[in-house]
Amino acid sequence: MYQEERLLSIMEFLKENNRISVDQICSLFDVSRDTARRDLVRLEEEKAIVRTRGGAMLPSIHNEIKNYSNRLQTVSEEKNLIGKMAASLIYPGDRVILDASTTVQSCAEQIENMDCTIITNSINQAEELSHKPEINIQLLGGTLQKEHRFLYGSSVVEKLSDYHVDKAFIGVVGISEKGLTIAHEEDGVVKSKMIKQAKQVIVLADHTKLGITDFFRFADLQDIDLLITDKTPPIAFRELLAKNNVELLTIDQEDERDE
């Protein structure tokens, strides 16, 4: 077997098992330890693996968080449906916090023009809601994160302390047994304070976010009341939510009821 063929086979093994040892390479491909080591050196040079003592493993993959404008352009139909369901939970007279996530913006876009108060740190959402004359908008002032278009900092957190609201709608990069996580700490600090100021905390997350843990944990599962998602999660995840007293509302369940 040529080296190129062997390297492809090593990568296939790693995709299934995540790790491989020098001894396994020798056994699988009937080569010497020196040949096995040369294969790993080649793969390391190509940044395909991370060398470990006695073998190699696949590198950790961190999904790139696109800037806000790019994320808006790729808002999925699932997010729109989640946003529509979330918006249906807002009633006249409600006082509501909306964070700066694109899924929550889908909610903002679909809120009916009614007498309610919306507090947000998202300049995009404030602009969207400004076209609805009955809605009272409180835009939290602070430092502008230009790439992702949210306001953050001590002034935002301090101002949030003055508000006590009925509902907070929160987006995440990941939700798992480790809690609610986000890519940027400054965003997470604001979300954490939003959660503390609400009677009911509603997380909006499509199925790709379930079971994922990202960089910064800003809340525990027990801190939220309701998760709205597009597909019914696996039973293990549903049991995790139940253990933490989190209610679950899914788009596919609603579709089944409508049939």
Written account of the structure:
- The chain is of the alpha/beta class.
- It has helices at about 5-15, 20-30, 35-45, 70-75, 75-85, 100-110, 125-130, 155-160, 185-195, 235-245, 250-259; strands spanning about 20, 50, 55, 95-100, 115-120, 135-140, 145, 150, 165-170, 175, 180, 200-205, 215-220, 225-230, 245-250.
- The strands form 4 sheets. A 7-stranded parallel sheet has the order 6-5-4-9-12-14-15, with helices on both faces.
- Strand 4 (about 95-100), helix 6 (about 100-110) and strand 5 (about 115-120) form a beta-alpha-beta unit.
- Helix 2 packs across helix 3.
- The longest helix has 15 residues, at about 5-15.
What layout of secondary structure does this protein have?
Blueprint lengths: L2 H15 L1 E3 H8 L3 H13 L4 E3 L2 E3 L10 H6 L3 H11 L7 E4 L3 H8 L6 E5 L2 H7 L5 E5 L3 E3 L4 E3 L1 H7 L4 E7 L2 E3 L2 E4 L2 H12 L1 E7 L11 E4 L6 E4 L5 H9 L3 E4 H8 L1
The helix content, as a percent range, equals 40-55%
Shape: elongated
Largest sheet: 7 strands, parallel
The helix count comes to: 11
Oligomer: single chain
Q: Give me the strand/helix succession.
A: HEHHEEHHEHEHEEEHEEEHEEEHEH
What is the residue-averaged pLDDT? 89
The structural class is alpha/beta
Q: Please report which band the strand proportion falls in: under 5%, 5-15%, 15-25%, 25-35%, 35-45% or over 45%.
A: 15-25%
The rounded Rg comes to 23 Å
Could you list the spans in which at least 5 consecutive residues all have pLDDT below 50? 62-75
Terminal-residue CA separation: 57 Å
Number of strands: 15
Strand order of the largest sheet: 6-5-4-9-12-14-15
